[in-house]
Structure formats: structure tokens, C-alpha cells
Amino acid sequence: MAEKKIEAKITVNGRVQGVGYRPFVYKEAVKKGLKGYVINLGDAGVEIVVEGFESKITSFIEILKKESPVVSEVKNVKIVFKPFKDRFKEFTIEKSRNKDTVASGIFPPDIGICEECAKDMEREGSRWFNYAFTACASCGPRFTGIYQLPYDRERSHMKDFPLCEHCKREYRDPMDRRFDAQGITCSICGPQMSLYDAQGVKTQTDDVFSAAANLLNLGYIVAIKGIGGIHLATLADDDEVIRKLRTRKKRPSQPFALMSPNLEEVRKFAYLNRLEEKILTSWRRPIVLLRKKRSSLISDLIAPGLDKIGVMLPYSGIHLALFKRIKTSALIMTSANPPGLPMIIRNDYAFKYLHGVADYFLLHNRVIVNRCDDSVLNIILNKPSFLRRSRGFVPDPIDIPIKKGSALALGAELRNSAAVAANGRCYLTQYLGDITTLESREFETEAINYLKNLLNITCNPDVIGCDLHPGYMTSQLAEEISQETGVKLIKSQHHHAHISSVSCENMLGLDEEVIGIALDGAGYGSDGAIWGGEVIKSSYKFFKRVGHLEYLPMPGGDLCAYYPSRMLVSALTNILDDDEIRDITGNHVKLNLPYGEKELEVILKQARKTETIKTSSAGRFLDSIAALTEICYKRTYEGEPAILLEALAKKSSKEELSFEVEIEKINGLYVLKSSKFLHDLIKMKNNTKNQVLAYYGQKYLVNGFAEIASTIAFEEGIDKICLSGGVFANEYILKELWRLLSARGFKVLFNTMVPPGDGGTALGQAIISLANVI
């Protein structure tokens, strides 16, 4: 009996655009002798219609589910079988079409150059030999290079570069690796690099990469236009040039990221485990924080005072071409954006804003549609902990537990990302930086509109979310959008958003309650104070503050965040009189205040005024210990005192110090006292190493919050404790709190998909807002 023929309509949702999925489908269908077509449906995924023998179609469907291209991610496969009608003569790839759906497909992030394309760049005589823009169906720019879906060449930055006859043949050849590759190009028809001097005059050279390499070897700073923006590159082993870069960038201490040509070179100056190697070499190619080795290959000035260094591998042909011509273990590769401005993506802006910063400019003539900074992550408890979620990860969506409704969330103020949520998924923008200038606010608006366009969102959201702080530019922007559109605005308390981001990542139910520990530098509190060391009981719909770090005055307000000694003095005013403090600061503790004793007197007066704003910030508590241990008297970048403190604490011998966690119940809230503990550390200072004091400062915070959270969780019968906030970028604090709470039987959850810092609050705002309107 002859085998039955059938027809099948297959709809595939997930990351199936821009990853070589249609060529993959084509090849598999042809192998099976099937006829029909495959077509992009815009943001709705891919539609496949096949006809042929039933066994062949069944086998074909199994391959679709299990063997798709490396970068693709199949979320859902819907199959409808129909009677055989003999409608097709062959299998084809049809022209893409839009489909009127919202946020059901997944468009890929930028994809690091693949091994095959890297090999093409090494093949002498090929059109891609040493060609910086070599790409195929499986790699190259995506998020930074597309204007709108469906992903076709005419809707991308490649529309300006018509294919040559050679590329056309490969593009049309079903058996070629570049078949239907929208980013295909070669040295004949594609973009080109040029080298310019500081005045913007083009240099005449046959090999711009060799020329740039020579300039770097001579100690010059070269601005390099890449995939999502412009970097500043210098040698990583030359103290003089690094000092010059720091002076020009006005970045005296903040660590610089490195790019190395391969893992072999990375191992010369940093320790690597298997997971770190896997993430470094993945198609996402983020910056990964690695433990430093003592090595002359990299300068101590790259990450002063820190035990870790950020490293990435080349993710484009531009980088490979440069490293082929310069023999070094690493180059500094840092974002070129001036303070307060978004990443530079235009050549004319590079000459304008980097004049006096870069000595030379290595630029190309391809448009960067969407600026996107490098992602940065650490590995803690064998899971990623993001400091910045951007290139390689955006616009990958995060599944959320609320499937109905749509939301726009504006995020916090510093290290910000915004978010758009719809149809059970939340899409975060790329890293936006600090939203503190008109230019950065405009960048946030552009990023949101780009996401909405990418997701085919043409209507207003059901709800808008923002931070409770009225002074944030993001909150003001949310107010304006709400007033213009008439859409309801929900303002989320900062730490409730942090904890809700963790609950959301873990797909907790709408009404499921957790105990949250939120530790960071600052968040506007419901009582008008600056919170930052909080224990809350919460679901998405509500939160209740149940514990916090002791309130301390902030003499001079935000000055306390820049001069840690101010917070140390402030803490002492809670338990000592002015003369006792003068004695301590005169004989036992250095303050290094800019204006010396006069400033101390002003601080003492301000601290005792009732109208001085109060804070429960864990960040400011750690700052105090940074001053006490003499490692940071002036903050030059966000989180510097606490980051230096963490590195110092790792040098501790863990010798036993006798101290008790002091918790007091005040007005129904558990309060972790900090003033007396800081005073005790000062009394130990003469006989105890600073690294030991640093270690026990962190340990006190951990033990105190573990005690408060577990006490409340037992009282409330809650088994899940969520950890979030910028302080949880601290490896010791996250690991130790996880260990202590897990040992007491709790399921401890923390951020692994978004940063624990403010870059993740938009996710929390989105889920809170949706929960309160559905």
C-alpha cells in the first residue's frame, strides 16, 4: 500500500529571524524531498507550509524542534495537518510579510562573528581576506543594524550596499553558507574602514589596520567605530598612555575593560574557569569579570585597587583584523561617550565630541541604526550576575507570569534600562546609562520607540510604570507620557521594584508573597527618607516594610555619596557627643575631608539638625567602612567605595572578631543598628588590619539581614526570600546571604536575567504596573 501524502502548516515562534533559520528550514525540506515554502511573518515568527509523504513531514518536524541553528531559540511550534492538494512544484523561501501581532516573535541580539567567517578572513585570495565586515546567516549585527521587521536587507543598514554579482550568487545558492543571509557583503561591495587624524583628515594608507596597530604601539589613543558604537583603544601595559586616557576621559579611577585576541592570551593575566570560558566564547561575547593574576602584561592602572578585571573577546571582523596586526595580550577597549551623553555612533559626532580625547579615528561608512554598549557580567554561584545587560542580550525577552495587558516602564535614574511588556513577555532596552541630561532622556525615548517599532506596537500601553522618586528625569518623562496619552501611571517604590524583578524572573504567581532583602545606595522611601537597606514583605500588588538598617543623617545630602567620611561622622553622631567625635577623628580615624576641621564642624551641626534627611542605605553603610579602612575618601565613580571594600575584604585572614548583631524593634519594624558597630570597629582599628575590618563590616550586614529576614519569614510562613539591589553585585554578600538563608530552609532567589542594580528595576516596575491594572 502506497504511503499517504499530506500537507502541514507549521508556525514557529521564538528567536527565528536573523539567525539563518529560513535557510536551515529550506535545506532540511529539500533533503526530505518536501515541497512548499517558508516565510517570515515579521514579529510573529516563521510560517512553513510543506507537502509530501507523511513520514518525511513527521521527520522534518522533529528536526525543526531539535536541530535548529545555534543562535536560534524555538519557543513554540504550532502544527496544522491538512489533506494533500499537490499545490507546489518545489520548496521556496518567500518574501517576508508583516503580520498584525504584537511581541510574539523574538528578534536576535547582535551575534559575535562565527568561526567559519573568522576562517574566511584568514583565507588568502578570498573576497573576505582581512575584510572587517565578514558575516553570514549565523553571525553579525542584528539589533544595531535593523530599522524594522521583518529582517530583510532593505530594512537594515546593509540597504546602502548593493550586492556584487559574487555575493548575489551566494545569496541565491541554497547550499551556500551565505544563502539568504541579509548581512552578506564582501570587500568588493561592502562597507570600508578609513583612518583619520585628530583634525578629521583621512590618512592615505593601503592597510588601515596595520597603520592603526602601529599608532597604538606608539602610545596613541585610537577611536574605533564598531558594531554598536565607538570605543577608545590603547595599549593595556603602558602606564603613561593609560594615565593620558584617564586624564582625557576625566575618569581617574573607574576600571577599564580589556579585549584580548583569544583565551590563550587571557590566561596569561587572568584566571579562567570552564563557565567563564564558555560565556566569553559564546555568540553573545559579553565582558566577563575575571580574577587578575600578577602580570606585567597589563597595567595596575586598568582596575586600581580591584581584584577583578573585565575582559571580552573580539566579536566582529574589525577586532580580528586589528589583533592580527598587533601582537599584544590585550587592548583597553572602553566606550568613547563623553560624560552625560549616549554612546557615539556617528562619524561627525566622533570628530566633534572626541576632539582632544582621541589622537586618531578608525571609522567605517556603515550606519549604526541603534547604539548599544557592551554587556558586563560576573559569575556568582555559577550563574550570571549582570552589571550591564546590553549587546548580545538585547532585545531578548524575559517571560513574565502575567499574560494579559501591555506596559511601558521607564526604569530608575542611574545605569538605566527601560522596558516594554506585552503578551507575557518583557523586552528591556539596551543599557541607557544615567538619565540625568536632556541628551540621555532623548536616548531613552528613542530606545523605547525603537522597541515598540520592532515589536509592531502601534497603540498606547495599558499602563505606564516609573519610580516613586519625583525628581528623577525618568519619572518626569513618565508623567508627561501619561498626561499626553491618558494612560494610567503607577509609581513603584524603588525597592519593591527590585524585589518584584526577582519574583518576575522566577515566574512567581500574581498573589504569591515573598520576603525581600533590598540593599543598594538609594531609593526614595514612602516616608520621604532615602531607603537602601530594606526588608519587605511583598507580592506584585503590594509591599510592606518590615525591617531596615538604622537611619543615619545625611549631612550635606548627596555630598555623603561622594565623600564617605561624612557618613562615618554621621553614624557617630547617633551615639557620641561632638567632643568625643573630635577626639576619635583627631586621634584614631583619618577623615581626609576636603576642608579639614572646618568641614567637620559643619557636618556635626548638620547631622544634628532635625530637618537633615535620613537614610537607611546599605551602600552608605559600606561607604563608612571604606573611609574607616582608609581605602576611599572621595568617590569618583558609582559604587567605588563599596567595590574597593569588597576587594580589600578578600585579603582578610578571616580571623575571629567578637561582635554581636544588634537588632531592635522600633515602631513595629526590625531595625539593624549600625552606629555602635561602626564605633566598635574604630576601637579595634589600632590592633586589627584594615582588611579584617572590611571583612567584618560586610559580615555584620549579612548576618543582620539574614536574622531579620528569616525571623519575619518564619513568622509569616513564607518560604521564599528574594535578594536584589546594587549591593548584591558584591560576591561575598550575595553568596553568604544565600548560604545562611538556604541553611535555614528557605528558597533563596536572586537576579540572573537582569542586573540586581537599577538596570533591572524596569522589569519590576512593568510587572507591578500590570498586576495593578489587570
CATH uppermost class of the domain at 548-750: Alpha Beta
Categorize the overall geometry. globular
Oligomeric state as shown: single chain
Average pLDDT figure: 94
Distance between the ends: 56 Å
Q: CATH topology of the domain at 548-750, which one? A: Nucleotidyltransferase, domain 5
Q: How many strand units?
A: 30
Computed structural class: alpha/beta
Tell me roughly what share of residues is in helical segments.
Answer: 25-40%
Within the largest sheet, what's the order of strands?
6-13-7-8-12-9-11-10-14-15
Quick rundown:
The chain is an alpha/beta fold and 774 residues long. 32% of the residues lie in helices and 21% in strands. A hairpin with a 2-residue loop joins strand 18 (419-422) and strand 19.
Annotation keywords:
774 residues; alpha/beta; Alpha-Beta Plaits; DHBP synthase; Nucleotidyltransferase, domain 5; 30 strands
Helices, strands, pairings?
Elements: E1 5-15, H1 21-31, E2 35-40, E3 46-53, H2 54-66, E4 73-83, E5 91-93, H3 115-122, H4 165-172, E6 193-197, H5 208-217, E7 222-225, E8 230-235, H6 239-249, E9 258-259, H7 263-266, H8 274-280, E10 287-291, E11 308-312, H9 317-325, E12 331-335, H10 347-353, E13 360-364, E14 376-380, E15 383-388, E16 398-399, E17 406-409, E18 419-422, E19 425-428, H11 438-454, E20 463-467, H12 473-485, E21 488-492, H13 494-505, E22 514-524, E23 530-538, E24 543-549, E25 552-553, H14 559-562, H15 564-573, H16 578-587, H17 596-607, E26 614-615, H18 618-628, H19 640-649, E27 663-666, E28 669-672, H20 675-684, H21 690-716, E29 720-724, H22 731-743, E30 747-750, H23 761-771
Parallel strand pairs: 2-5, 7-13, 9-11, 10-14, 17-20, 20-21, 22-29, 24-28, 29-30
Antiparallel strand pairs: 1-3, 1-4, 2-3, 6-13, 7-8, 8-12, 9-12, 10-11, 14-15, 16-19, 17-18, 18-19, 22-23, 23-24, 25-26, 27-28
Helix pairs in contact: 5-9, 13-23, 15-17, 15-18, 15-20, 18-19, 18-21, 19-21, 21-22
